[in-house]
Amino acid sequence: MANEATVAPRDARARVGALVDALADTRRRRAALDAEEVVLLAEAVPVAQEQSDAPGASSVRDIPLRSLCAQIGAMWRVSDRTVQRRMSDAVVLTAEFPLTLVALEAGEISRAHAVVIVEAGLPLNDDDTRGRYERSVLEIARRETPGRTQPAARAFAARVHPISIDTRHAVAAATRDVLVRDLPDGVAELIAALPAYLAHGVRDRLDGLARREIAARAAEGAAHDRGSGAALLDDDVAPDTRGIGQLRADAFADLLLTGHATSEISHASVPEADAIVAHVQLTVAVLTAPPPQTATAWCSSWWSVARRCRCDSPSTQRSAPRSW
User: Has residue 173 been placed in a domain?
Assistant: First the structure.
């Protein structure tokens, strides 16, 4: 019985070892296939360009490449733009990062490692500098995950970059901007590209405001539980259950629109509703304006928002329907 009990764990360990070895071999073969695909995509670009040498407008000369991308995209079931991007990445990898391609072919790194190495090393224009960068980062990539390789790759690329970090930061900071990207269900993302220290400073302040709000809410609830806060809390008022992310977003909007961290404080100087001045131009006969709806809007204009804003508009012009 003792021998059987000893053999069973050995068999289990052997099966686990065989499974791990098989998965490692699969990963190596997958990396080799990824490298083969990269080479084929890079070779496809000059093939298409040879058919584009005929004189004519650039839109006409690009037809062979677009046609090839469409064929590959139909086979892969991806968009033409995805194929074009993969082709461009393949050309960069094969032409400018040959050591990374060799490591990928050998299964020493994964495709994710190659992407990290290429992205961090793209600003390096000198072949010798890029070669030193590749050799150093590949040593890390062979033993670390792509996530851990990325900061090391960026740090080494920054050290060997011919342009100083101050100059590069000034150029990058000059691109700062604020963008809005609409999302479904009446939500939008407000994206600000800022110098890193400012962005982290904004996030840190929002964190502090949100945590102070949570602490004040907890203290108020504790006082109410002791019976000393009965006059402060109204049982008819719904409890504040906002999480820290929601509190950060609310403080962010209140600070930008009113200059205060909360709408309650700002109401004394700049009411939250007055912080947004809507400029809505609509021509709708007042008698034909539809009642509130819950169906999904089909047009790009936010009709429900416009209807809500028209009530507070300082210059609403009403018109009766005409009979023609």
Answer: no
44-47 CB contacts, 8 Å cutoff, 24+ apart: 44/68, 44/72, 44/87, 45/87, 45/90, 45/91
Beta bridge partners of 177: 193
- 178 close to 192: Cβ distance less than 8 angstroms: yes
Whole-number Å distance between alpha carbons of 167 and 190:
28
Calpha distance 120→156 (Å, rounded):
9
251, 210 in Cβ contact below 8 A?
yes
> What separation in angstroms does the CA of 220 have from each of 84, 230, 268?
58, 10, 22
Distance CA 90, CA 100 (A): 12
At 107 the three-state DSSP class reads coil
- DSSP letter at 56? S
Cα 295 to Cα 184, 290, 292, 299, 303: the distances in Å are 14, 12, 9, 12, 11
Residues 6+ apart with CB under 8 A from 316: 310
- Tens-digit pLDDT string for the chain (324 aa): 555 555 567 788 889 999 999 999 999 999 999 999 999 999 999 988 887 665 555 556 678 888 999 999 999 999 999 999 999 999 999 999 999 999 999 999 999 999 999 999 999 989 999 999 999 999 999 999 999 999 999 999 999 998 888 898 999 999 999 999 999 999 999 999 999 999 999 999 999 999 998 888 888 777 766 665 454 455 556 777 888 999 999 999 988 888 766 655 555 554 544 555 555 566 666 566 566 665 555 444 455 555 555 555 555 555 555 554
Give this prediction's pTM: 0.62
Q: Which domain holds residue 217?
A: 203-275
Are 284 and 270 in a shared domain? Answer: no
36 in the same domain as 50: yes
